Amino acid sequence: KFRARYGYPYTVVHRSDLHSVLLNLQKETDQINLLNDQIIQTAKESENGVVVTNQKGETFTAKAVVGAAGL
After folding, report:
1. For the chain, how big is the Rg over CA atoms in Å?
2. Which residues share a beta bridge with 2?
3. Which among 10, 35, 45, 51 is most buried, taking Cβ atoms within 10 Å?
4. Dihedral of CA 53/58/62/66: which sign?
C-alpha cells in the first residue's frame, strides 16, 4: 500500500545501523558532511540543489539533504 500511495517502498532501519551507514559513506568521500545540533530554519530548492539555513543564519547548499530529528 505504501509504494502504491507514495511511489516508494517503506523501510525500517535501526538507528545505529543508519548511523553506521552515514558515517562510513562520509569517511569515503569529501562530498558528504554530517552536522549535529542544527536547527533548520529554512530548506529551499534552487537551481543548484537545496539551500538550507540553520539557527545561526549559516547557509549550506547541496545536491541533497537528509534531515533526521533524534538521530
Report:
1. 14
2. none
3. 51
4. negative
